[in-house]
């Protein structure tokens, strides 16, 4: 009673985001998932030196581990979107947590670098992808007004986990070796299953409340009131049958919505993100090895990532709060462009850092700019496509970014092997990030804002429900006539009023015609609201 029948093809109505409540639990789960997804590929770089010794490989070979993780995180976006649209966020996240954990556990038993690619790279990366994307989708359904702040707080999980996983990885490496460290890391990834369990669909709780309220209302309506109980029941049954007959046939839900490619803003955003990802992840992935090559002890080298993470912790929520301001939120794309420009200039200006102090300064500014980029990237995408198409949009964007992830860090590793110089890498990565910032700002201004200015304002159509007093009066008269015809009751008082008003109007018109010295024929005739004269109206109403 009071429930929609799924067999009748009625799609669930969108539920208003609560901007709180259980949403804070969902936000915490998204915080943990984001931390593992983004920090884990960087924290694994702590083990690269030992892997190079055991497997006799170079920088570029070990860099492929992080690249494959990130490529799976991005490249499986459409697959994840299809699974979420088909099965929901919670089951997909539970499966993803199991895959991520099993991948790291199996990686601890590998005997060559190829097996490490398949386990730690492919399997763990796929598991994290099946957790990361659904968590962002759930966050967008639970928050609307506070969405910039929620995105900033969730994105803060990346620096928090980065500042903790890197020192933890160094401790595990010294005590248990890289195999023991991978095994323990796999156990930690089981927490992704816990986060997936709290991702309760928003419409479930709201539907239960609505069903209870509807049941109570229908129970009151079904109570017998005098002799009209049977008539009320039969009327209710007839209304339900009529509603069922009018219901439309079921429309299949799209597993992946490609119509978003008709959105110019989405195209601009996608191109900009592709260029950005080419250089964004290169400095943090190669930073630890760069510091070790310059003579920095291993523990202090790993601490550099912790500095980036610590600064990033405060940069992301702060940037989310700024993006949520009323005068900033409409221009969030430009704020995102500034964040990318800041990050790229930081890479370029810090390319000549050759001591530990210079690397620390670089980490401070990189943490600020990197936090701004992380807090704004998905907020900008949600603002462009909306929450309804976000699940498909993020999947397609991540797929396109996956190609950039596969190109960026491995290419940088090959350049390090060939040139033995990190300065060129920082210049190249910074230039790519600056290019993406300039492209996004210029394209947004030229293609979007100018296009809106050139569009002429829509002309007011009086016949389209405009808002003139005459039309409102006509609609009121029509509603009154329909109401009177439905009730089948004579309205003598209304008829008398119409007759009196029409006679008075004719009398005034005759006086005006006499004083004006003659007027064209027909000017003294008073027309009714529906275009007929008053006599016709009186004659009609007298019946």
From TrEMBL:
Domain (Major facilitator superfamily (MFS) profile) ranges: 23-448
Subcellular location: Cell membrane
Record region (Disordered): 451-543
Mode of membrane association: Multi-pass membrane protein
Keyword check for Nucleotide-binding: no
GO molecular function: monocarboxylic acid transmembrane transporter activity; symporter activity
Name of one Pfam family that matches: MFS_1
Transmembrane annotation, as ranges: 21-40, 63-84, 91-110, 116-137, 181-202, 266-291, 303-325, 332-353, 359-378, 390-412, 424-448
Keywords of this entry: Cell membrane, Membrane, Symport, Transmembrane, Transmembrane helix, Transport
UniProt keyword Transmembrane helix, yes or no: yes
Acidic residues bias (residue ranges): 469-479
Bias kind Polar residues: ranges: 487-496
Top-level taxon in the UniProt lineage: Eukaryota
SUPFAM superfamilies associated with the record: MFS general substrate transporter
Cellular component per GO, a single term: basolateral plasma membrane
Compositional bias (Basic and acidic residues): 529-543
Family, as annotated: Belongs to the major facilitator superfamily. Monocarboxylate porter (TC 2.A.1.13) family.
Name of the protein in its database record: MOT3 protein
Source species: Pluvianellus socialis (Magellanic plover)
Gene giving rise to this polypeptide: Slc16a3_0
């Amino acid at each position: 009673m009071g429930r929609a029948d799924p067999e009748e093809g009625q799609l669930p109505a969108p539920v208003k985001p609560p901007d709180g409540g259980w949403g804070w639990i969902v936000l915490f789960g998204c915080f943990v998932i984001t931390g593992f997804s983004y920090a884990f590929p960087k924290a694994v770089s702590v083990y690269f030196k030992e892997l190079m010794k055991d497997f006799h490989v170079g920088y570029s070979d070990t860099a492929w581990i992080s690249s494959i993780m990130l490529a799976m995180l991005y490249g499986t976006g459409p697959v994840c979107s299809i699974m979420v649209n088909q099965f929901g966020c919670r089951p997909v996240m539970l499966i993803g947590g199991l895959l991520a954990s099993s991948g790291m556990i199996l990686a601890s038993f590998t005997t060559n670098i190829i097996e490490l690619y398949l386990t730690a790279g492919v399997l763990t990366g796929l598991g994290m992808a099946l957790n990361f994307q659904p968590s962002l989708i759930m966050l967008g359904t639970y928050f609307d007004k506070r969405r910039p702040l929620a995105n900033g707080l969730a994105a803060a999980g990346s620096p928090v986990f980065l500042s903790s996983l890197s020192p933890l990885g160094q401790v595990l490496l010294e005590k248990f070796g890289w195999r023991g460290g991978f095994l323990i890391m796999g156990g930690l990834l089981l927490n992704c299953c816990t986060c997936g369990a709290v991702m309760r669909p928003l419409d479930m709780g709201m539907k239960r409340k609505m069903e209870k309220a509807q049941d109570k209302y229908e129970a009151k309506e079904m109570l017998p009131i005098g002799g009209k109980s049977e008539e009320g029941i039969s009327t209710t049954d007839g209304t339900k049958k009529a509603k069922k007959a009018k219901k439309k046939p079921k429309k299949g839900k799209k597993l992946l919505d490609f119509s978003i490619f008709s959105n110019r803003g989405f195209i601009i955003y996608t191109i900009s993100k592709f260029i950005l990802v080419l250089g964004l992840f290169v400095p943090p992935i190669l930073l630890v090895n760069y510091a070790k090559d310059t003579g920095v002890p291993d523990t202090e080298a790993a601490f550099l990532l912790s500095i980036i993470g610590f600064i990033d912790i405060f940069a992301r929520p702060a940037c989310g709060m700024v993006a949520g301001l009323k005068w900033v939120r409409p221009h969030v794309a430009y704020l995102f462009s500034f964040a990318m420009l800041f990050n790229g200039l930081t890479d370029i200006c810090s390319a000549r850092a050759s001591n530990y102090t210079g690397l620390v300064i670089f980490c401070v500014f990189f943490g600020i700019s990197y936090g701004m980029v992380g807090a704004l990237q998905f907020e900008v995408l949600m603002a462009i496509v909306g929450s309804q198409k976000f699940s498909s949009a993020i999947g397609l964007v991540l797929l396109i970014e996956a190609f950039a992830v596969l190109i960026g860090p491995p290419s940088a590793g090959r350049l390090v092997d060939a040139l033995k110089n990190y300065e060129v890498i920082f210049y190249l990565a910074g230039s790519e990030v600056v290019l993406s910032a300039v492209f996004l700002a210029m394209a947004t201004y030229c293609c979007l804002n100018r296009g809106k200015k050139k569009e002429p304002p829509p002309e007011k159509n009086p016949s389209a429900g405009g808002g003139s007093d005459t039309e409102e009066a006509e609609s009121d008269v029509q509603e009154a006539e329909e109401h009177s015809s439905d009730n089948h009751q004579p309205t003598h008082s209304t008829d008398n009023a119409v007759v009196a008003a029409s006679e008075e109007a004719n009398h005034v018109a005759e006086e005006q015609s006499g004083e004006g010295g003659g007027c064209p024929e027909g000017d003294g005739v008073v027309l009714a609201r529906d275009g007929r004269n008053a006599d016709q109206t009186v004659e009609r109403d007298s019946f």
